[in-house]
Amino acid sequence: MHSTITSLSPGIARITRFSPHRQKPEGAGDMTQTNAVWVMNRHADGPMSDDNLVLREQPMPEPGEGEIRVRGVYLSLDPTNRVWLSPRYTYLPPIPLGDPMRGFIIGVVDKSRAPGWAEGDIAYGLMQWARYSIINPDRTAFMMKMPAPTEVSLEASICALAMNAHTAYYGLLLKGQPRPGDTVLISGAAGATGVQAGQIAKIAGCRVVGIAGGAEKCAMLVNELGFDAAIDYKAENVLEAIGRTCPDGVDIFFDNVGGPILDAALAHLAMGARVVICGGISDYDNIEDPDALYGVKNHFMLLMRRARMEGFVVFDFLGGADQQRCERDLTRWFQAGRLKYQAHVVEGIEHAFPSLKLLFNGGNRGKLLVRLDRD
Ligand SMILES: NC(=O)c1ccc[n+]([C@@H]2O[C@H](COP(=O)([O-])OP(=O)(O)OC[C@H]3O[C@@H](n4cnc5c(N)ncnc54)[C@H](OP(=O)(O)O)[C@@H]3O)[C@@H](O)[C@H]2O)c1
């Protein structure tokens, strides 16, 4: 497997990985008549294993009344996919054995029996790890009609206007409640959600410090995305580095990682700080085993600094005025060039599950996507 990097626009790299071996799914036949689908084979118990999901060839599905069929163009790979492999009820019910893996897809409506949706519309939402997904747009948790590709490319839409950007917006602005001049610290800062949260915090007039793994990611945060400072958690003492880069304390900690990094941030909270728990990727492999989960030590700092710590899920804000405001602001900022993104594109549905581990070893450079088909 090799990779090429091409520049999309100043400071934005696109990485495309090509595999020399294009594997066909089990039972692969005439691809025009069938659908390739990743299905739940064995729930996770600890670190992911190769057999949690299997790729199957299934009959091409037809939409029923009120449904659309979406030809997927990009599948979004997300850390929460590991959470969804769990047999436990998390914030969504577990996926039964034999059912398709759920995932965020952007694609083209190829058949519609749903009011308000026409062939050729660009659909984004919670669908399936499949080339073709059938969904009822009115009953899907996260469903949006996206701009035509002539206005915004599908890659830009999924990176800068979809779930990760919504998460950054709701978490940073509605939960974090930034004030100009606040110091905002972000973990997992070079990832899909982190880069958007940092740029939104800059738009809100804050001083922004990112924590990421490696000199290259830290340089990208400061030199290309306008972060005020970056901490390489793989090379520095994070506790000391937060003290050095946030001398007046941390007003908002936007946490994507959890574990010892959360503890280090808690130690540096400013008075009245807000700790926004967006994710905890460092512990997702332990969710089936409470004894293995990291135990936070510095929670007393919430008391000492009269601080608030609150978790949220992006779904909490959908379907109302918050979502409308979010879509409007993200579009405006994106069009004004104030929201950059980085896409890391893996070619081919057969590489979807094997590529998920990139999120857990830091191998992704920006939003991790699987290209399923041409635009
Ligand atoms: N609350 C919500 O509704 C919501 C929605 C979307 C995402 N999230 C959460 O937001 C977080 C980021 O998601 P994303 O999609 O934007 O992924 P991402 O940041 O693009 O990729 C994950 C990154 O996490 C870092 N990481 C992995 N293991 C780590 C560890 N043990 N310690 C420190 N850093 C580690 C890696 O970056 P480095 O190279 O820097 O280590 C990796 O690139 C996840 O926790 C996810 O579950 C929450």
UniProtKB/TrEMBL annotation:
GO terms for molecular function: oxidoreductase activity, acting on the CH-CH group of donors, NAD or NADP as acceptor. It comes from Denitromonas halophila. Keywords: Oxidoreductase. Residues 49-370 form the Enoyl reductase (ER) domain. Residues 1-33 are annotated as: Disordered. This is NADP-dependent oxidoreductase. SUPFAM superfamilies: GroES-like, NAD(P)-binding Rossmann-fold domains. Pfam families: ADH_N_2 (PF16884), ADH_zinc_N (PF00107). The lineage of its organism: Bacteria, Pseudomonadati, Pseudomonadota, Betaproteobacteria, Rhodocyclales.
